[in-house]
Specification:
The structure is a homodimer. Chain A is built from nine helices and 14 strands. Chain A is α+β, with helices and mostly antiparallel strands. In chain A, strands 9-11-8-12-10-13-14 form a seven-stranded mixed β-sheet, with helices on both faces.
Chain lengths: ~325, ~325
């Protein structure tokens, strides 16, 4: 079998690659949990991601702040406060050092703002994929300390509420519209969510969190119900989607629910805590668009349905491959 | 300024890139030490490396065992026992999954042998550089627990002995001869040195260790004397070099002292401990070629000299760039 770009899409093809090729050889109790990070020494979490987004500068961010925000959001989803980072840079021959410096400057700013410490770094140089447009890749590995434990997927029960902290699909559509040279005001939502999530954890017991990157919230919601005795119902009209994203989505025929976010979190809390959680999220600028979008249901176990205003239901499938390669 | 392959060579051009472009933005007390890993929470060390070697299979190893051995050797050089790993895979479109599985299998074997735990992993897919020959990159980030502290560069004094644990230049010449389709029996020395180093640390106080990868022992020895009040003298005839490496080195005009090793360690101990250290190293198969190759000198501070059998001295400079891009 040959690797295709679909294997990197974060959907079903990625799942297949991981379960059939990677897992037989690389496995451990922590990896088998399929979370966004692994716990060690009881109180630490480690998460890793290599960022290969193209273009390296896009509306609302660049590969550098994306590398930091992405890993911080993974740690945050485990209830962990980001503390220590390592970075592995792979530079393409011909990359302009002024571009590299711009990227490093945005990384520096985020590192200072979030008081994280960079402990290790590595730099390699390879030939450029496209000589006229050399880029770079950044591996970002973060270590966090567990701040408040998240209860986990096993704690989820019918009736629980599902929240997203922001409008969906902005990162994917920002990168895409930039690649296609479309005139658009859509900006990536790239941002580190820890300050927002910390505030939430201080006040509300969270059952589950995951940041919907590749594959969007369609992927995350399907991961939540996978092999569980419950399903999920999403109220279509409650999903926050910016008008520009909606417009581009209709134009290109791409469902914003399947598109990557880089500053958004899917959160599950008990029904009675939904209002309090929303109040807290709304009080922080990164959570101003937070919305209650659906609930856990005892019907149709293992499946995610969307319900529209007329009560019509449709299955929200796990995306298969990717319409947007190299999105993060 | 444009990035060139020389910036990835591990020599003076890499140093310039790091000090002029990276350090103004990414810095921390741990990074400023310029060690192969950073210490956190007093007892842990983290080290990161992205492996981009081409070809992905070479005599004596592949990119997978290289990714593990390389990071383990970095941790070992800090006196740390390898414990936890994360891996970031970047696969090129068109890569054959049977090749990927071969690589994962060698990783699995090493992971089991060394009882390390893989806590996190990530997979991305990008377009291939060369469609006819797709490859992959692996970021390997390791966390170790400090087993015995190494005293550090400040503890080095004139008279101290310098040891290498194996013959030099084998990794670089193995990859190079494979790339050039030369008929050669040289194999890469890719191997995880922790079991050997652990045995040494159990018995001998080590002052300094570093594994001489890119830039070879010429680079490491120059890093040791950099801005210090001592120099180093290396006895040319005592450096272990396999005849095949010597032959290829003369043929191609490449100094084996400037060539990457992936299972070798430069070690500094007090003069009176040299014999004991060598006895311990010789008792392990990975240290069978270990040799005392030189000593720290109070003359010519900041410089490394080699001395030949006739007493003639020459300066061993820090390599500038790289004759061998994508060696690790």
């Amino acid at each position: 079998m040959k690797i295709t770009l679909d294997h990197g899409g974060g959907g079903r093809k990625t799942d297949e690659l991981i379960s059939k090729i990677f897992q037989p050889h690389l496995n451990s109790p922590e990896l088998m949990k399929r979370e966004d990070g692994g716990i060690f020494e009881h109180s630490f979490v480690i998460s890793t991601d290599t960022f290969v987004v193209t273009p390296i500068f896009f509306p609302g961010g660049n590969i550098g702040d994306l590398a930091i925000a992405g890993t911080i959001n993974d740690l945050a989803s485990m209830g962990a406060e980001p503390r220590y980072f390592s970075f592995g840079f792979v530079l393409e021959e011909g990359l302009d050092t002024s571009d590299l410096e711009k990227i490093l400057k945005t990384m520096e700013d985020l590192i200072k703002e979030l008081k994280i410490e960079v402990l290790a770094a590595d730099t390699k140089v390879i030939e450029a994929h496209k000589k006229e447009n050399p880029g770079l890749y950044i591996n970002s590995t973060g270590i966090g300390r567990i701040y408040r434990p998240v209860l986990g997927r096993d704690s989820i029960k019918p009736g629980d509420g599902i929240i997203v902290t922001g409008a969906v699909g902005e990162h994917g559509f920002a990168v895409l519209s930039h690649r296609l040279s479309l005139s658009s005001t859509i900006k990536s939502d790239t941002r580190p969510l820890w300050p927002l999530i910390k505030k939430l954890l201080d006040n509300v017991q969270v059952k589950f969190m995951r940041d919907p990157t590749r594959g969007g919230i369609a992927q995350v919601l399907n991961e939540i119900v996978d092999q569980m005795s419950f399903g999920i119902e999403i109220f279509e009209e409650k999903i926050p989607v910016k008008p520009e994203v909606q417009g581009l989505s209709e134009l290109l025929g791409i469902d914003p629910l399947e598109v990557a976010n880089e500053g958004n979190m899917v959160i599950i809390v008990a029904k009675e805590l939904v209002d309090e959680a929303l109040n807290i999220l709304h009080s922080h600028p990164f959570g101003s668009d937070a919305a209650f979008i659906g609930e856990v249901s005892e019907e149709h176990p293992g499946m995610v349905l969307t319900v529209n205003t007329y009560g019509a239901r449709r299955i929200l499938y796990r995306p298969v491959g990717t319409k947007l390669p190299r999105i993060c």
